[in-house]
């Protein structure tokens, strides 16, 4: 991460040089949680990553330890817990075998489903939910020094004692089973089929007037961004495919098919329901002559 962008390292020597540079320059030492086949190309899932973060370090430890213990007892895995060097703990859970995929989208879907299954029925105050499902997640490199606290990012045991490098070899040998991975893939296949059955192209004639009007408006700013989500959600729920939905934004001044398709697919995976008229009204996109608009008295 020498220039704030992702760097693809291809050899142990390059990795060592990167760590040396970070140490000398008091810079954070990051690495991707998943293996990459290129500078920005994830092709497989090797392990799952959970981030517990809190000003109350003991609470973060308690919840990270609870998750690790539950996974160990319920799934027979050996999670690796690392002190982040600051105010949190990371929990790594390996798969018994690396799962390879033909696209980043499929890898992301598998990764997200795996995390959702492991967390089902559980609730943690300090778990960072924003990073769940992030297939391109970065994490601090174990044994690197935190640039602010100057503390070491340290792998630890369930008793909170430090682990040495040689102690880490067996963690990947006690990963989530093949049957668990197959269950995740089966659930994704079923979901994909359900979504495919929804993709029956429809016309625009029955679409709400405010949605159609938004397609001819340059949607910018925070409200405009929210309205783009509303438009995409509306058409996805009406049976349009991601490709068809992304093309609807051609009238936007910043239109980019790749970015539009990326955001539309992300909306699809989140299973959003159409925005309520009241929500669109708050965003400022309700039409004065809309027949659905409440009569003001």
What would you say this structure looks like, in words?
The protein has 9 helices and 8 strands. With 297 residues, it is α+β, with helices and mostly antiparallel strands. It folds into 2 domains: 12-188, no CATH class; 209-283. It has a 4-stranded antiparallel β-sheet with strand order 4-6-5-8. Strands 1-7 form a two-stranded antiparallel sheet. It has a two-stranded antiparallel sheet with strand order 2-3. A hairpin with a 2-residue loop joins β2 (36-38) and β3. It is elongated, with a radius of gyration of 23 Å. It starts with 11 loop residues before the first helix and ends in a 14-residue tail after the last helix. The mean pLDDT is 87.
Question: Order of strands in the sheet with the most strands?
Answer: 4-6-5-8
Q: What is the number of helical segments per DSSP (H or I, 4+ residues)? A: 9
Poorly predicted runs: none
Beginning-to-end CA distance, first to last residue: 59 Å
β content, as a range? 5-15%
Q: How do the helices and strands follow one another from N- to C-terminus?
A: HEEEEHEEHEEHHHHHH
Secondary structure: number of strands: 8
Count of discrete domains: 2
Given helix and strand content, the structural type is alpha+beta
What overall geometry do the principal axes of the alpha carbons give?
elongated
Major beta sheet, specifics?
4 strands, antiparallel
